[in-house]
Structure formats: structure tokens, C-alpha cells
Design goal:
Elements (H helix, E strand, L loop, with lengths): L10 H15 L3 H21 L6 H15 L6
Length: 76
């Protein structure tokens, strides 16, 4: 296992995750929802094709993002 629980980070998934974090921090709920859907689809594709050995960390992040968006409240 790597330093932070990843064996090897997937660059495609990491890019989407970083964008979701930016969207949430900037109160861009619609963009965050779109990117969460994109992450979910890409994660399933990579798991199905065998390109992702352990998806547990990514699945956990995905569920956390879904919870964050569900509880999303605008601050203005």
C-alpha cells in the first residue's frame, strides 16, 4: 500500500476528484454534480475493464462527495 492508501493513483480519476473539490469550494453545485456523475461513470468503466485494481478509496470519495452535495447550502 502506498503512503496514503493508494497503490497507484489513477490520473484520470484524480483529475475529476480535484475538479469536484474546486467546484464545491467555489459553491458550484451544478458543476460538482456533473463531475460526480462523470467520476461515477469513469470509476465503473475502469473497474469493469480491470484497469483499476482497488477502487475502495475512490468509491469512498464518491460517496463522500454525494453526501457533500446533498447537504450543500449556499453561503450567500
Amino acid at each position: 500500500m502506498g503512503l496514503f492508501g493508494f497503490n497507484k493513483k489513477d490520473k484520470d480519476l484524480e483529475g475529476i476528484i480535484n475538479q469536484i473539490r474546486v467546484d464545491l469550494s467555489n459553491n458550484y453545485k451544478d458543476n460538482a454534480v456533473d463531475n460526480i456523475k462523470k467520476l461515477e461513470v469513469m470509476l465503473e468503466e475502469k473497474k469493469a475493464s480491470g484497469k483499476l485494481k482497488d477502487a475502495t478509496v475512490y468509491e469512498t470519495l464518491l460517496e463522500d462527495f454525494k453526501t457533500d452535495v446533498k447537504n450543500f447550502k449556499r453561503t450567500y
